[in-house]
Design a protein that fits this description.
Blueprint (H helix, E strand, L loop, with lengths): L3 E6 H11 L5 H19 L3 E5 L7 H6 L12 H16 L3 E3 L6 H14 L3 E5 L14 E4 L4 E2 L2 H8 L6 H8 L14 H10 L2 H4 L7 H9 L1 H11 L18 H4 L1
Parallel strand pairs: 1-2, 1-4, 2-3, 4-5
Antiparallel strand pairs: 5-6
Helix pairs in contact: 2-4, 7-8, 7-11
């Protein structure tokens, strides 16, 4: 039987749980994180589970391309940062194992794991509220929002962005993503980007005479920034990971 793997965007889960528990209550953080993992394992009936974390200096690759990438994000609360090692150890003791890679974002590790699992004939449930993973949907990844208990699927993407998941990289190349420090093209906002992509293939948007007026001028002037933004938003799915899926197989007692 092929593997069905739950990939958990660890900080996406833990930071939201941390925000909901009393300040300094590490026991509550541990208990709620473990409970969330157990609930997802049983609900999705998976054979493997992987908690994926950012490595140290995780933004180095993208900040080497664009120093403003995630540069203005609020820092992790110090109290949470100090407990992450113990939290990972607590999860490890109940057979929920973790992976992180020095100098690498969790997003890229998740993309790489998903690609490898799907290529081997497995199934992937990716637990995260992060819209950056929409680009993985066309390869067969299903994305679960644990907090709202719903799938983030093609219909959700169409409703929110008026675009299918396979065009989200194009969208970010135009509109950018201010929360992640991805610039996009100056003067091209979300609604304009969505409208343009519904009217034209992206390869034509930057050609003279396709889009007229000020918007056309902004597109042509902003082409280099669009290329940069696309590169920043695109997940790296071909990393070499020194790990085996076998180490993340869950015992029957955890899945039952």
């Amino acid at each position: 039987m092929s593997a069905k793997v739950l990939l958990i965007d660890a900080l996406n889960l833990v930071r939201r749980i941390h925000a909901a528990v009393p300040q300094g209550d590490r026991d509550a953080l541990y208990e709620r994180t473990q409970a969330a993992c157990h609930k997802m394992i049983r609900f999705h009936r998976v054979s493997h589970v992987v908690m994926v974390w950012d490595g140290e200096n995780s933004h180095a690759w993208r900040q080497g391309i664009h120093p403003e990438y995630k540069a203005h994000r609020p820092a992790m609360p110090e109290e949470l940062a100090q407990t992450l090692t113990n939290l990972r150890q607590a999860l490890d003791k109940i057979d929920i194992h973790s992976i992180s890679v020095e100098g690498t974002e969790a997003d890229d590790i998740l993309g790489t794991l998903a690609s490898k699992i799907l290529s081997a004939g497995g199934q992937v449930v990716l637990a995260s509220t992060d819209k950056g993973f929409f680009q993985l949907h066309p390869m067969g990844v299903t994305q679960w929002n644990h907090f709202d208990q719903c799938w983030l699927d093609g219909d959700y993407c169409l409703e929110r962005f008026n675009l299918p998941p396979e065009r989200m990289l194009e969208y970010w190349s135009l509109a950018g993503d201010s929360g992640n420090g991805i610039p996009g093209i100056a003067g091209i906002g979300a609604k304009t980007a969505s409208r343009l992509l519904n009217e034209h293939p992206i390869a034509e948007l930057f050609n003279e005479g396709v889009v007229s007026g000020k918007i056309g001028e902004k597109l042509r002037a902003g082409y280099p920034m669009a290329q940069l933004s696309y590169k920043l938003a695109k997940l790296r799915c071909g990393l070499k990971l020194d790990t085996s899926l076998n180490q993340f197989r869950i015992p029957r007692t955890l899945s039952g």
